[in-house]
From TrEMBL, chains A, B, C, D:
InterPro entries: ACT-like_dom_sf (IPR045865), ACT_dom (IPR002912), Formyl-FH4-Hydrolase_C (IPR041729), Formyl_transf_N (IPR002376), Formyl_transf_N_sf (IPR036477), PurU (IPR004810), PurU_ACT (IPR044074). Residues 7-86 form the ACT domain. Catalyzes the hydrolysis of 10-formyltetrahydrofolate (formyl-FH4) to formate and tetrahydrofolate (FH4). Its EC number is 3.5.1.10. SUPFAM superfamilies: ACT-like, Formyltransferase. The lineage of its organism: Bacteria, Pseudomonadati, Pseudomonadota, Alphaproteobacteria, Sphingomonadales. This is Formyltetrahydrofolate deformylase. GO terms for molecular function: formyltetrahydrofolate deformylase activity. One of its GO terms (biological process) is one-carbon metabolic process.
Amino acid sequence: MPSQTFILTFVCDDMPGIVANVTNHIFKSGGNILESHQYNDIETNRFFMRTAYRVADPAGSTALEAGFEAIAAHYGMDYRIRARSQRPKVLILASKADHCLADLLYRRRIGELDMDVTGIISNHPRDTYASLDFGDIPFHHLPTIPGNKAAQESQIWALFQSTGSELAVLARYMQILSDDLAAKFSGRCINIHHSFLPGFKGAKPYHQAHQRGVKVIGATAHYVTADLDEGPIIEQDVERISHSDTPDDLIRKGRDIERRVLARAIRFHLDGRVLVNGPRTVVFRD
Amino acid sequence: MPSQTFILTFVCDDMPGIVANVTNHIFKSGGNILESHQYNDIETNRFFMRTAYRVADPAGSTALEAGFEAIAAHYGMDYRIRARSQRPKVLILASKADHCLADLLYRRRIGELDMDVTGIISNHPRDTYASLDFGDIPFHHLPTIPGNKAAQESQIWALFQSTGSELAVLARYMQILSDDLAAKFSGRCINIHHSFLPGFKGAKPYHQAHQRGVKVIGATAHYVTADLDEGPIIEQDVERISHSDTPDDLIRKGRDIERRVLARAIRFHLDGRVLVNGPRTVVFRD
Amino acid sequence: MPSQTFILTFVCDDMPGIVANVTNHIFKSGGNILESHQYNDIETNRFFMRTAYRVADPAGSTALEAGFEAIAAHYGMDYRIRARSQRPKVLILASKADHCLADLLYRRRIGELDMDVTGIISNHPRDTYASLDFGDIPFHHLPTIPGNKAAQESQIWALFQSTGSELAVLARYMQILSDDLAAKFSGRCINIHHSFLPGFKGAKPYHQAHQRGVKVIGATAHYVTADLDEGPIIEQDVERISHSDTPDDLIRKGRDIERRVLARAIRFHLDGRVLVNGPRTVVFRD
Amino acid sequence: MPSQTFILTFVCDDMPGIVANVTNHIFKSGGNILESHQYNDIETNRFFMRTAYRVADPAGSTALEAGFEAIAAHYGMDYRIRARSQRPKVLILASKADHCLADLLYRRRIGELDMDVTGIISNHPRDTYASLDFGDIPFHHLPTIPGNKAAQESQIWALFQSTGSELAVLARYMQILSDDLAAKFSGRCINIHHSFLPGFKGAKPYHQAHQRGVKVIGATAHYVTADLDEGPIIEQDVERISHSDTPDDLIRKGRDIERRVLARAIRFHLDGRVLVNGPRTVVFRD
């Protein structure tokens, strides 16, 4: 029987012995640790861990997971064990600017982002993405018109649920989610904001950046919360600019930053490398 | 007679023929252009230029500068011609954290920053910098106590004037300049703020950054204006951080960014490479 | 009549008065300079300039160009004047890894890279790029088999000429051009090498980088010459890596660097911003 | 009794159960893990770990270390346990360019690099560093003259031994160590090479970089081995440059990169974060 790789992540209050007990359990259950990261937040006394382990046979993994429940209960852990082979289901939302969408579909196609895209939602029609091959991914045109926000969001939420998606990606989706929808998605929706937060929140951040005269621009991938552009930051990156860059130049240069920042954030999230820590994240990068 | 290098910088409304007229004048006056940069701000229709030229003999340079007045008047230029050999006079202010001060003194000593430091002012006493060799640079201990701000600032201004300084550098000088003093310095005072503006203005920016959970920190050198941390940005740089960085780690990592950002900004300014453009700057980097 | 924008680039021996004469001529001919860069290589005494100017009417631009011939002859200039509206013709070559190809086609589609792609050549068949929409760009499958290198290269050259292409892009095209073909392309062929040259020339650079244990990887876009990976470098960029990155991780992380480096290099080249300076380039970046 | 922090590092062949046994032992001995990193090199099947733990009382730490011997023997570990309070002894060597030396002394002075500098050796006399306050660190002028290399190196080695130093830092020390001395230092000598290795080994790397026309320069900190500039790389960093940078500009810009790269490498090494892995290093960064 082929061995399987599992990703265990958990958060709990810190105390002596956690790692010893967890790794001991994995070892006793026939697991072999491939990679392990931990972090103690001394301010809050919370402990974060991510361990990738391999088990030779399915019986072993079942026993491992069953036995882990007691440890998790003992420490009051918020935990998750996931098989690497289980492809995550992701729902992507986009608007007019499709550079992030095109980039994510490419990475999926070549196997770099191993995910099952359950659907592509846009407030723009299919022909906006005429050159993009969606394969057999269903496309949903959910236009927004004055007064229909709640109805349109209901459709988004319905699709998220009916497809069994675990992550929604706002890939330069330009509609602001209502507090209600943001709350529903809590921790399961990643947005790419085209600025280096906390600077330039809201609309037209490149124009704001140009106005302010910054010498570096950036992009930020974060979990969506009710507060616009305030959610826990997952990943950021930057690029130097100069006085000669117009807002259009910033938009152009920004596309590259947005693409790679969003892709990294999604990759980290799907690989269980991101753990929310209040208003922040713990990211066990690879 | 040895040739001399001059730096000409000017700003004026843009119109056809400026470069032709200016370069023609330099050529006719026996000047040879070594380096030249220009920028047209299409939003404001303002034109910015910096030209470094060499003139074989002093008579030629005098004629060149005399003749330039008419061109400058014709175009309504705000201009300056400075001989490279003329060492700028710089007044440095510091507080407890002396990494920027130490760094600037080192660069000056090895000839990297060619400036005449007219004085070092601090609200802390001399022994705060026991290990630093100030050479023959006068040190002025100007402590701040409740109620003496205006008096203390008068001493700063008096020193700036009496030493004939052209630039004041707030090298992690932690006292906030009053609107009055900021206005007096206008365009002649560079501050290093230990954050990547416009984020985390004001006090304890590293603690703010830690709280916000950004994944990148930075530092910003800017001209001081009445609005705290709002003046035209000259230079910025960043460094990646992670969830495991405590505020003290950010302070430590930030020191390196602050040192190099401030040094670059000062170098650009002293070499006539920075031209203020409203709330922003044009920086002809080298 | 609508105004047109032109890009003038030239190289010549440096001497006083060049800029004055050139800008004066542009001005007298009714041109208005939009952007201008120059560089004096003091080692070789060569002068490089790029000026973008606008002329109100076609008659003016014709006169400007006609009159420029005398100036060019006087200074022994190697020069070029090109209308910005004239879309450059570019031939792209690719192999199995299509990330650069896909990226260039995307940028062209959204108008970021304004070029006329005259053809896509690959040593792999069309279905290798099943998901990529080539639109009406002709695809040419030119397989390489032992013994047919010269014949296959003749076809490449024939296509380059018959399409009137001015630039060939080796977008992770993995066949090494013969000295003969490299010489024919001289200065008109850009390659992306997946390492930070001069390190890790030749095959499997990511494996070489992994073996060497570098902490930073990069990609290099350069003009092709007879010496493999030795041609004048146009653009480079890097990314931090760690001991935990396997060669496959480097390949993955490297794709993003390769894409942006190649795209920037092509953009600079097509916009007349790159001038070859012996074994190096002068790049007037935007 | 106050608690103490210890750093345990070890390398051994990988096999299931190592982490469980090690962390279990720490736990049972009353230790509390503060930070832990591990890495499995799947190519060589070698396992690397660094764990920082705190023990409430000295008796506990003695027992922990005594008990660890059996575990280490069982796994064939190459290991080390060091108390954080034990300040490492470091010998610094410098030559004419003193920017790295000045920078390290500054970081030590403000407590950023917690080390006991046992001496400063230079092939140049003390007055080369007139402005630098060495405090009570002994300075040794060991000039090199034709024919005295072996004798001069004997003095270096004698000082290294007599001072009980554990690390020698070549802070832009420009004499090439003989194979003999390099071998003696093995793993205990860090050099800063002023290029982004593997490019531009040997002399005048900035001139080499300028000649090659790279668009990015860097610096590399590595362990010294018999092969010049070939030892395991610890840390690297880069900076963008352009065609207008002369070799002197590269030297100037390079100083900043060298300073921070060397300082980081030393910091990592002294904090037990660097483990040699054949020709490479594993670096558990903070």
